[in-house]
Amino acid sequence: MDKVFDIEIKKLRDNIDHIDRQILDLISQRLTQVQDVVALKKAHNIPVYHPAREEDLISKLRSQATASGIDADFMEEMYRVILRNSRMEQTVEMKQQGIKAGATVLIVGGEGQMGRFFSDLFRASGYIVRTLSEKNWNDVASLCKDADLVLLSVPIHVTLETIQRIAPHISPTTILADLTSIKTAPVDAMLKYFTGPVIGLHPLFGPSCATLDKQIIAVTPGRDNGKCRWLVEQLSLWGAIMVNAEPEEHDDIMDIVQALRHFATFCFGQFLCRKKVNLARSLEFSSPIYRLELGMVGRLFAQDSSLYSEIIFATPSRRKLLKQYVAAMNEQIELVESNDKTLFMERFSEVTQWFGDFGNQAMRESDFIINKLIERF
Amino acid sequence: MDKVFDIEIKKLRDNIDHIDRQILDLISQRLTQVQDVVALKKAHNIPVYHPAREEDLISKLRSQATASGIDADFMEEMYRVILRNSRMEQTVEMKQQGIKAGATVLIVGGEGQMGRFFSDLFRASGYIVRTLSEKNWNDVASLCKDADLVLLSVPIHVTLETIQRIAPHISPTTILADLTSIKTAPVDAMLKYFTGPVIGLHPLFGPSCATLDKQIIAVTPGRDNGKCRWLVEQLSLWGAIMVNAEPEEHDDIMDIVQALRHFATFCFGQFLCRKKVNLARSLEFSSPIYRLELGMVGRLFAQDSSLYSEIIFATPSRRKLLKQYVAAMNEQIELVESNDKTLFMERFSEVTQWFGDFGNQAMRESDFIINKLIERF
Q1: Interchain pair B70, A278: CB under 8 A
Q2: With 70 as the cut, is the pLDDT of residue A45 above it?
């Protein structure tokens, strides 16, 4: 490299640094304006997240970008990052707002991770939060007294007995709700042993989330929906997306979405371990897809084994499904043994047809994710 | 909502729109400066991607962000998007630059997707590109004549016979290279039937990529590395990351990274299809992780079945590995049948220990991806 090059590149880089400095100042100004919007909305009691406004803004920016010779997808991507950041800030602000602030919430299993997650949320929004565990079970009667909500956050295998034990202490004006990842048996038990309002909830996320923003909670109605409404609205206000289902439908879906998926991942990890695969070296040769898939496997094993055993072994119908799955794999291996590529391709295209449009959607979504991975790592 | 609110919110939103307009202008200015940097680098023949400069810039921006009360992670994320966009633009520019522009490249199977992908790249960088397929096989002698590189881009199952057929027509001063996803047998055959420089390549990505930017290509040396160097440098200059391995090591890794992973995904998709799972409904209840995992499955079935059958059935050692895998699953199902949670947890923690630090790394990486998914969808 020569002197002229050094001088010229320095000049250009200084220009870029100067531009970046101005962008940063503008981002800072933007955050201030967004905070003013939040304050105004709070004063008028208006929900903070406004999807339509976001999409309008994105559309406008896309056409402005195109007009200025900037790639519209790039501009959209950049603004999704900016908007998400302001939404997070707003959600942190809005967390404070309680639909029924001052009400009393008793969290059973409140010392577990999920229990603490919800304790913190309720407390931050002005609720009075009590917790119950084996340690203070002697006080169950006084802790249940005048509670507006009793929320069960206990492991699956003790859910039913906990419902039976606590129900007699709860007033029929209190809401009884649970957070178990299966819903048929818990909702049945709550309806059987308790006479007041009942609602089943299943948060589809772990307690390590920062906020409820866009997280999914399945809602299975039990009894007296009207009286449970404030709880559903509170969870929505915290940012959660509430999805309704009958308990049976919920459980059928979770047999696949949770039990089967986790079991398949468990088996894959076990096999890698048994074969002593050199992970670090295999990652050097990895397409982003494999890195991501291996990451999903690693993720499972970085978490609590008892949580996964609870999910996988939860019900006899689940265990039956897993057996069917392995039986189906045995059929596929016959195909490999006979080295029958034609049959493989036939079975493949059967599944392709069955997936239908989802296949293309999956390609688009995973392309997006792959680009994110390439960008980052 | 009242009038005062309407007026005030409009004012704040106008402010935000005005700020966004300025950000857009600055981004446009920034792109112009970056184009000047590219032009300058081209004039001085300097590689375009400068990782150290990027990391410096990110560090500086992070501390400036913190000083201005802006979340540093957010600022980093936003700039990763901006930098990736400029890198893409730069790579598009630099594509033009040929290490050995004017040289002749013969692509065998040049009408396949991967063949066309590489044809376009070589052509854009000033190479003379010829293609050979069954249609013009009669011209094989004249097409091979004076070629600097013969690059095989044919399906796995015809690779060996293609090597045997073409080798006698290639001059020993030409490089012979292949793009097959297995390496031992093709490299052996190239060394056996050809006496000139040999290099095995395996691009770890599909032909649907926009550029080679940060894509991985495995390199297995064959003969006369020095003479093959310009090819490796050309691929690097296009943005690819070149990873070296012996052919046998490469194939062992790909047994896992490709064959086993794809087979497991194939079986999962087959089972979903057989059970007629309601995909759309299950996605409504999905955590981002499941959406992503299902997306990976859908992605596989949206692609070419013959490509996957080629990969899965490629070698006897692969088929043996898949049998071992299903045998291991049969052992795991015994555990489910006996409903033995304790043993499950024991096996689980064995794998956790074996994964070691990778588990935490996987959590961090997949958390990042999950946030990206939540942001987008």
Answers
A1: no
A2: no
- B-chain residues within 8 Å CB-CB of A1? 44, 46
Q: Which residues of B touch A345 (CB under 8 A)?
A: 305-306, 309
B104-245: CATH number: 3.40.50.720
What are the start-end ranges of the E strands in B121-164? 128-132, 149-152
Beta bridge partner(s), residue B243:
B218
Whether domain B3-94 has CATH 1.20.59.10: the reply is: yes
Contact call for A12 and B36, based on CB within 8 A: yes
Give the H or E element holding residue B43. Answer: helix B3-44
Structural Rg of chain B based on CA atoms: 26
For residue range B66-88, what is the model confidence (pLDDT) as tens digits?
Answer: 888 888 888 888 898 888 887 77
Q: Dihedral, CA atoms, A341, A343, A348, A352, nearest 10 degrees? A: 130
Q: What is the ipTM of this complex?
A: 0.74
Q: Cα–Cα distance between A344 and A323 in angstroms, integer? A: 22
In the structure, what pLDDT confidence band is assigned to residue B89 with cuts at 50, 70 and 90?
low
Question: What is the pLDDT, as a whole number, of residue A47?
Answer: 63
Is residue A43 left, alpha or beta, with left meaning phi > 0 and alpha meaning psi from -120 to 50?
alpha
Phi and psi torsions of B200, nearest 5°: -100, 135
**Cβ-based contacts of B264 with chain A (< 8 Å):** 264, 268
In the chain, the amino acid numbered A83 is L
Closest Cβ–Cβ partner in A20, A363, A368 for B61:
A20
Give the one of A80, A299, A366 whose C-beta lies nearest to B295's C-beta: A366
Segment B157-176 shows an average pLDDT of 96
Burial label for A209, CB within 10 Å (0-12, 13-18, 19+), is: middle
Per-residue pLDDT, A98 = 86
Mean pLDDT of B334-359: 90
